[in-house]
Design brief:
Oligomer: single chain
Number of strands: 0
Structural class: mainly alpha
Number of helices: 9
Helix content: 55-70%
Radius of gyration: 20 Å
Largest sheet: none
């Protein structure tokens, strides 16, 4: 049986469920269903994904699955929500470990944290970017961007010189979208033209200049 990563999200109510599991046995069954859904989704793709396949993989009856998950869309939402939460937790953990970084080291720490978190689960990254239907894809990406952006903005707000701190939210928006695009292309490209360290070097070269030169304001 597939193991389920231990994250805070497994201990909180799960949005979208028909009903919340209350007893330990029912919670364990829901986690088994979620773990099975992840396997089916990443192995078979969204188009072939079905609640019957998930129930068979989890070794539960379709009726037991439907007690909690009304349709496959809710299962996909739970999976992507947990992945997004895990990415934001991973970014937070890495940045908290590097709060003393300044200058180029700060830029590299932020870029490395984003790259590491986004590339930790290539199958789900590919799913969110390439396989989900348009509206669902967009909603998942926007939620991921917002979560990671908030983490990075808080990090920059305490690491930047005082004069630049009002830029933290804008800088985080630019940094996350830039790194998101580069990471997705790097991870999903079968033959990227540079190594991971070379990618970080290029990001640092761009980021140091961006952080150091405050843009002129209009008005």
């Amino acid at each position: 049986m597939e193991s389920v990563p231990r994250t805070a999200s497994t201990q909180r109510p799960i949005a979208g469920l028909r009903r919340q599991p209350r007893q330990q046995r029912s919670r364990a069954m829901v986690e088994r269903i979620v773990a099975a859904a992840r396997v089916v989704l990443t192995e078979d793709g969204y188009d072939a994904f079905s609640t019957n396949r998930v129930a068979a993989r989890a070794d539960v009856s379709p009726g037991s699955l439907y007690q909690y998950f009304p349709d496959k869309a809710v299962l996909v939402d739970v999976l992507t929500q947990r992945w997004i939460e895990q990415v934001s937790e991973d970014v937070t953990r890495v940045l908290l470990d590097r709060l003393d970084a300044t200058g180029p080291a700060m830029v590299r720490s932020a870029a490395d944290a984003l790259l590491t978190a986004l590339s930790a689960d290539v199958a789900l990254l590919r799913l969110v970017w390439e396989d989900l239907p348009g509206a669902r894809n967009l909603a998942s990406r926007e939620l991921l961007e917002r979560r990671v952006r908030d983490v990075l903005a808080a990090y920059l707000a305490v690491r930047l010189p005082a004069a630049d701190r009002p830029r933290a939210a804008r800088m985080a928006w630019v940094a996350v979208l830039t790194m998101e695009f580069l990471t997705v292309r790097f991870v999903l490209d079968p033959n990227p033209p540079l190594t991971r360290e070379e990618l970080l070097d290029e990001v640092v070269a761009m980021g140091v200049r961006y952080v150091a030169v405050a843009p002129e304001t209009s008005g």
